[in-house]
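Run log, item B.
One chain of 388 residues. Sequence copied directly from the ordering sheet:
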Amino acid sequence: MSEMSFEQMLDESLKTIRNGEVVEGSVISVKPDEIILNIGYKSDGIITRNEYTNEGNVDLTELVKVDDKMEAVVLKVNDNEGQVLLSYKRLAQEKGNQRLEEAFNNHEVLTAKVTQVLKGGLSVVVDEARVFIPASLVSDMYEKDLGKYKDQEIEFVITEFNPHKRRIIGDRKQLLVEKKAKMQEELLKTLKVGDVIEGTVKNVTNFGAFIDLGGIDGLLHISEMSWGRVDNPSRLFSIGDTARVFIKDINDRKIALSMKFEDENPWNGAAERFAVGNVITGRVARMTDFGAFIELAPGVDALLHVSQISKEHVDKPSDVLSVGQEVEAKVVEFREAEHKISLSIKELLRDEEAANPSAGDFADVDVEAVAKSLESEDSEEAAADTEE
């Protein structure tokens, strides 16, 4: 039996390794861009920065210390310099994929930091395994700029797992939807009709504004924004404004809101302020062929019939009046239950002439004629309301 040399005996005492094998070693040297491991083989193992992590230009000396124990997978048994090329990242990726597969099967919620903001979504890393979250699954609302998520930790679930095709898809949106639905259920239990609440304007449309009440939205219809007339909600509200509202109605998940608080109702005290015989001042709000509607206060309009505009004959209100014009008139009819008020400039002029006969001849009022005129006003006003 021939004697073996020292080197041959040393080789025999050391283990053999193969490409793809997982080895364990002890760190004997660390540089910013590489790690040297004693793996119990005739050559040391080396892990480059690119084979340690997916994260850019990190300094490995800040992550690994001498004497640390590490596992890695063999990429090449003997490189050009007689070292064994190892990869910590690929082993971690394999373990990460196993972790993601378990999370996929169990519908587990994961948390990870966003490492990259891509054109079509976000990239996160779980144990060196990459997960892609498409832009459409990042939020429950449209996100124009995903840059705000960079380096942020987010929660998500795995909805597609196919590592062979490099398709591991995450979904954050469904978690937000589920969370919001739960919050809405809890909030709905606490809300009731009549509650006064402050909310934030979330969206403004031509028919109203959607108000965030703290997790659930309510609709403030244009007709409920004011006791007065509102032509354009965007003139009153902007997104982000705070609005004080009360709940008018709850129908399943639909919440109707209002800002027409009863203590601010302009018809409160109207019977005294607009009693028959009172002389009032208002502005022309709108006109029809049969008369002009005079705004006496926000939410309180009165009809000035074309026959009551002047002592002289008037064909159309627009012949003598204009929208926004201030007029003074006498209240000749007040019906509070119907919110109907009728005015007359003609009667006011006659009263002034009666008080000052020298100003001109005065003819007694034909009571029967005035009554017939008011009946005509009622029917015409009803027709106008129907048209509106």
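Observations after the first pass:
- The chain has a mean pLDDT of 86.
- Residues 196 and 246 are 4 Å apart (CA to CA).
Flagged for discussion on Thursday.
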